[in-house]
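Handout, section 4.2: multi-component inputs.
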Amino acid sequence: MTEQSENSAEPQETAAPAIELRGISKAFGPVQANKDISIRVMPGTIHGIIGENGAGKSTLMSILYGFYKADSGEIWINGQKTEIPDSQAAIRAGIGMVFQHFMLVENFTVLENVVLGVEEGELIKPSLAKARKALTRLADEYELQVDPDALIEDLGVGMQQRVEILKALYRQADILILDEPTGVLTPAEADHLFRILKGLKEQGKTIILITHKLREIMEITDTVSVMRRGEMTATVKTADTNPEQLAELMVGRKVLLEVEKKPATPGEAVLEVENLRMTDEFGVERVKGISFNVRAGEILGIAGVSGNGQSELLKLLGGFAQGTGEVRLNGRKVPLHGHGADARARRQSGISHVPEDRHHYGLIMDFMAWENMIFGYHWAPEYQKNRLLMDNRAALADARGKIERFDVRPPNVMLDAKSFSGGNQQKIVLAREIERNPDLLLVGQPTRGVDIGAIEFIHKQIIALRDKGKAILLVSVELDEILSLSDRIAVMFDGRIMGERMPDETNETELGLLMAGVTDGGKGEAA
Amino acid sequence: MEKMPKWADVVLIPLINLTIAFALSALVIWAIGENPWNAVKMMVNGALGSTYGWGYTLYYATNFLFTGLAVAVAFQASLFNIGGEGQAAMGGLGVALVALFIPFPHWSIAIVFALAGGALFGAAWAFLPAWLQAKRGSHIVITTIMFNFIAAALINYVLVNKLRPAGSMDPASATFPDSTHLPTFHDMLAPLGIAFSKSAPVNITLLIGLALAVGVWFLLWRTKLGYEIRAFGKNQDASTYAGISVTRITIIAMMISGAIAGMMSVNNTMGESERLILNSVEGAGFIGIAVALMGRNHPFGVLLAALLFGFLYQGGGELALWTKIPRELITVIQALVIMFTGALDNMVRDPIERAFIRAAKRRKAAS
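Output:
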């Protein structure tokens, strides 16, 4: 399985690999992030590295870019052994990196950002002039058009990503590493990015694409390496493999990629939302008058690129942000501000909430699993011994049951939440929220940072709750997830709902356009 | 994942920290030309060598137990209450007013009212900074420090202009009536046939402090409020998600903290001086911060740390009295203890933790 395949494009057979890692190991305290990893990336190819969160992909790339020092192992670049003690050395070796979180100065122009760190001489003007010329050339060559005088803060994420790529190319990078580049992009933007990457490859650049999305691997890479728990489990030619095999290599067992579900049989509207608005602390309106409803026994999926008001919508409905408009639950009015507009009141009225960010909101990382399993419901009568004291024994017993039913591993309620893996942490949150048997479940990014094996389980649980006749509002930036789980899809852009579609009557292209804010006028009930 | 055993965390590491602190202290004593070994002997002897010494050690420990618990409760809500000094001082005023102006038939009733008076004044003094933090975002560290100064000035004013008996030149209140005299250990132990120094000030307030430590433990780990305080202290954003009110917890946790600090004054004002004097708290509010840090904000840890600081305080006093070692050096020793148990904790913790993990790995590999 681990044999290094003789890479793709034939002419390069004889050339030295652009990058060769030999026996790279790296440990963080007790965690072995990378274990004896060897990899050869041939020049002029796109090499994918796929693996679950925590598999060690980012650590490996950080070693290559000089952020970490490997405990052992060698790095060879273009046939030469190279030491990379810092990112300056990586840049000198011709490596460029595009991070998941962009490293741009928001209030600088594109040009200034490109020049930043590689200015020549004391005066900035000649450098800028030189960069402007180079930028025009690069733009023509690789379809990387960006207005050099635009401020970064005025650009969308897709454009910002182009600036990152331009930055790397301007520094004469021959090897480009992209870390989860499509996480923040609409499908159309992602397609454009892939065209750019193919163009770069044709010009002889070498590209390493780190992702957890099988589709992207299949679509664009020549070779793919799979990582699992810090080890490189396989390197294969993309043409010789398929998504099922890759998923199995990632997880270590067979995985069902498709979600099985019966058609929905929606009942009465459980949640009715009318003209909901919210302004954040900086005075920016985040939710701009949206209306929708969710019926019993139905999953309404909210699609959209992250940052278009979905987080705020969840917080508003979950009761920890204040807004205006009208929200009714089972026909009863839900206060949106002032008295009674808090998360506890929402829970008492029958709304449970799996928040988008479990580290920040869903769990207290320093609390034990059992304490987390009553978090938000610690006032519930079944956890009280009398008016003064809580019944910790009841809470413990309760938690043990949940951990068993949701297959949380390790099944130890006394462990701190931070000691569990992402998927098991999410199961703790889900167990807590789903087992309250709520009328309405709010779910944000249920499978973010969750391994494939657990994704399957989490999806099943959400569907099971729907089949019990509960209403579910699902917010996700993963279009695949929205399409496979939802019974109805609403697309959010810039704080508004651009339209509603049925999952079997739409496709990624149409949703992608809506996510980018493009409406087709007449069709649909666009708000 | 391997972890350090709990006993190493709560026993071994503080012990190593203390050893380093004392070793450095010995070095300093040696450097100023005194014999460290003699100094140690004198400290131990002065603090623990007689019932008189014990009586003072425990008296100071009682003060530090109260202020340490006060700081610990606020710390659990991640509020850094530096105002224990002022809250205890105001508590003293509350205690004095109760003792001076309510006629009590017996000390047992007096102490209940005095505790209530101290708690009320201390809590009230903590309320304003808490409110300002919760509603206006004024940082609690700044406001509580300022409130320490305001409390000192206010008490100065009240003592000089209101409570000072006519004709007295001393800025202190009148002596409390005899019926408010709290039983000292001498009084309590005499019926059992145990002789305890008559002049040592340790009194029944120590037992109340112990009960309070148990109470704080119950509050934090067995009640809804305690759950909310700890959750809030660990993650404020998650607390809002869970429907825990930021304003409510900030204010309540601070008021509990202030009330505990205020109750300390029953020990010194009613139990020892039996009148309200200037600067009656004598820095116990600040030492409470070190006690809470060292005790890891756990009531039991706070108790142990309070005993240690009581020992340092009394032993240090003896040292200053009988040797050429200046009193300031005692402050240096205390500072070293605080530094190594609080601020420099990770210096010892990290290598020890790594050693344990390595050992565990080796055992695993061997088996």
